[in-house]
Amino acid sequence: MSETPRTTFGGRRAVPPNNSNAKENDPPTMELQGLVPRGVNLQDYLHVQNVNLFKERWDSNKLDHHTDKYDNNKLIVRRGQSFYVQIDFNRPYNPRKDLFRVEYVIGRYPQKNKGTYIPVPVVSELQSGKWGAKVIMREDRSVRLSIQSSPECIVGKFRMYIAVWTPYGIIRTSRDTETDTYILFNPWCEEDAVYLEDDREREEYVLNDIGVIFYGDVNNIKTRSWSYGQFEDGILDACLYMMDRAQMDLSGRGNPIKVSRVGSAMVNSKDDEGVLVGSWDNIYAYGVPPSAWTGSIDILLEYQSSQNPVRYGQCWVFAGVFNTFLRCLGIPARVVTNYFSAHDNDANLQMDIFLEEDGNVNSKLTRDSVWNYHCWNEAWMTRPDLPVGFGGWQAVDSTPQENSDGMYRCGPASVQAIKHGHVCFQFDAPFVFAEVNSDLVYITVKKDGTHIVEAVDTTHIGKLIVTKQVGGDGMKDITDTYKFQEGQKEERLALETALMYGVKKPVNTEDIVKSRSNVDMDFEVENAVLGKDFRLTITFQNNSPSTYTISAYVSGNIIFYTGVSKEEFKKETFDVTLEPLSFKKKEVLVRAGEYMGQLLEQATLHFFVTARVNDTGDILAKQKSTVLTIPKIIIKVRGAKMVGSDMVVTVEFTNPLSETLQNVWIRLDGPGLIKPTRKMFREIRPNSTVQWEEVCRPWVSGPRKLIASMTSDSLRHVYGELNLQIERQPSV
Fold it and tell me: Annotated binding site for Ca(2+): which residue ranges?
């Protein structure tokens, strides 16, 4: 069946690596055993004239396999489930004397034992879990087959052949691209490793092509829609190309553990020329700012066509593209957001914030960072490589943070294992455990070099973990799937289990915190609108009969959402005298002029308030972030909201700032409604409004969504969306 290559690789390997779905090697159309006697015409034997795959969107193959949404004219089926094929021969088929079989081939060096060459026998009854073809109808010269694939079959694009046996050898059909068949993972099949029982969850986590990603701050949660577009033209091929680019062996592509791990490496470009270049420095020359993307379609199609990494992405872009990859191949997946996510470089469950003696943060010693939020993915699958009970949702993260087995990737890590502290199980569970369970430790550095632990905050990290709810755009709290509630016995037990399995914790923060101060401090940040002044209100509470004097320091910083500070824009000190058993409030005004010139694209401001009780030497420290409220894009439509009818989309944006916006790009996207498109405006003057109209013709009915984004030199993360109900075309 497979050609014998000249190279033998030193005797260790007879066949070169079969790691490309795109590369082909056609089997011979005739495999004869010796010479054919004179006068024998092989055309007299059973001969294939036509193959019908029933591959139209309305055919039962695509409807039954839930692949009718793919904008692809090839047959797309899911493994472990039967589908129909009709073969037209040159004469009526006689099962007593005629022998034929269907063959599926993938890659350049197909081998039966690797699952890359699949001869499908014609059988009297289909057997569960095995390849087989059953004749269900014979009519004149046509034979209709019910073909069932194995639920462990390789996922990819197969070439199909019909082989007919004669006394003199095999006659095989020629290569025909029209019979190419995509086989995907099957969450509807109980024997598939990605089987998901709940139909509403399958609808959401496999078939929904529009999602909601949560970002912002835990006290000011923002949402933005994302077009996954897994069914759009060319996206399935782009996802298969990603695995080819990773040189992933075809024999491993039926295993969702391996596929998701390779995907987590390939979505970022570090070390493997993957899909997206990450950039967190606010400089996006020669590329698209991460906040400008409205979905995955443009990114994946550009990657495949240019064969170069696309610029630029940050965590929610990596997560959005990875979700498209997983859902497109049939693996149930969702994007999750962890608020106050620890980037703990050495996974020691401790985020050390070093303070000077006067209460200021020592930025040289403070290496760990707390991300305001971090997005990753969860993929649903069994884990036969782990003990029973650790299947289900697996955390997978494609944002390039730490090296795993020599590559920037993370997971799949069992969420159940993370919750119970079983971080010994692969892959990368200690890193994910630290992201949601680290302690925030405030340490004062004395002039003599000694360190004193001032306070430990065990509840700050992993404050809230959320995902989009099933069947709606609301938020679902899934924190309890990752961790037990603080203070519960189970929570301590999970931590002890993680420590037992080798997670480091250098400073014993249990019971070594200084005695609690008689003074409490907290502060609130007023809801802040971009371009407007706002206030901080700091409250001091004296719980003792003594009078205290306090020296306080407020530091306001422009920060990346990763918690890294770019610029200190506000510095203010003040003294407060606290009478016995009393409280006092202090207001600090933050002017727009102080922060506007320095803003980063997510408009996140971080405030750090430290105070020293002069009479006792106690240090009080609190930190909070706020995300400025940013104006929205307005989307309107007019015309019939119906498949095949023209609809006019109007995108409108008003500049609320007192400065002119330069180099403005507005992007518009809507799976099933309009192909991703964009328009540039050189400038938008203060309080001016720009409008842009596009005519589109919807091709998908049901609930749909238009998504728009705006980016400019000085203002980003501006979004707008519009929900639509598209009617079916009336039948004639």
Answer: 437, 439, 486, 491
CA distances from 512 to 84, 441, 584 (A): 70, 11, 30
Q: How far apart are the C-alpha atoms of 224 and 719, rounded to whole Å?
A: 7
Same topology for domains 30-34+43-184 and 519-627, yes or no?
yes
* pLDDT score at 348: 67
| Coil, strand or helix at 487 | coil
- End-to-end Cα, the chain, rounded Å: 50
- Nearest CA-CA partner of 478 in 494, 459, 465, 461: 465
**Would you state the pLDDT for residue 120?**
97
What six digits make up the tokens of 198? 């709940």
Given 315, 328, 410, 696, the catalytic residue: 315
* pLDDT given at position 10: 46
What's the confidence (pLDDT) of residue 142? 96
374 is catalytic: yes
Catalytic annotation, pick one of 192, 217, 298, 397: 397
Q: Where are the alpha helices (DSSP H) in 284-406?
A: 297-306, 315-329
Per the CATH hierarchy, to which homologous superfamily does domain 200-500 belong? Transglutaminase-like (3.90.260.10)
| Cβ atoms within 10 Å, residue 385 | 12
Query: 583-590 and 565-578 as β-strands: parallel, antiparallel, unpaired?
Result: unpaired
Q: What angle do CA 517, 523, 526 make, to 5 degrees?
A: 175
pLDDT of residue 39: 65
Grouping H, G, I as helix, E, B as strand and the rest as coil, residue 729 is coil
Q: What is the CATH number of domain 519-627?
A: 2.60.40.10
Beta bridge partners of 665: 680, 711
Output phi, psi for 304, to 5 deg.
-70, -40
Radius of gyration of the chain (CA): 31
Q: Is 721 helix (H, G, I), strand (E, B) or coil?
A: strand
Helix segments in 351-509, DSSP class H: 415-419, 429-437, 479-482, 489-500
pLDDT score for 507? 54
Write down the pLDDT at residue 506. Answer: 55
The pLDDT assigned to 346 comes to 59
**11 contacts: CB under 8 Å, gap ≥ 6:** none
What is the per-residue pLDDT for 623?
A: 82
267, 322 contact by CB (below 8 A):
yes
Count of beta carbons in the 10 Å neighbourhood of residue 475: 16
Task: Report residue 362 as tokens.
Answer: 């020592």
The per-type count for the chain, helices as H runs and strands as E runs, is 11, 40
The whole-model pTM stands at 0.90
Q: Which CATH superfamily is domain 634-726 in?
A: Immunoglobulins (2.60.40.10)
**Which residue in 366, 344, 345, 346 sits closest to 355, CA to CA?**
366
Of the residues 374, 422, 606, 717, only one is catalytic, namely 374
Q: Which residues of the chain have pLDDT under 50?
A: 1-10, 509-513
**Helix, strand, or coil here: 719?**
strand
CA–CA dist 351, 24 (Å, integer): 52
Q: Which residue ranges make up the annotated binding site?
A: 437, 439, 486, 491
**Structural domain spans, the chain:** 30-34+43-184, 200-500, 519-627, 634-726
> In this structure, what token pair is assigned to residue 366?
């403070």
Topology of 30-34+43-184 in CATH?
A: Immunoglobulin-like (2.60.40)
Q: What are phi and psi of 258, to 5 degrees?
A: -70, -40
The rounded distance, in Å, linking the Cα atoms of 236 and 73 is: 12
Is 457 part of the annotated catalytic residue set? no
Contact 668/674 with Cβ under 8 angstroms? yes
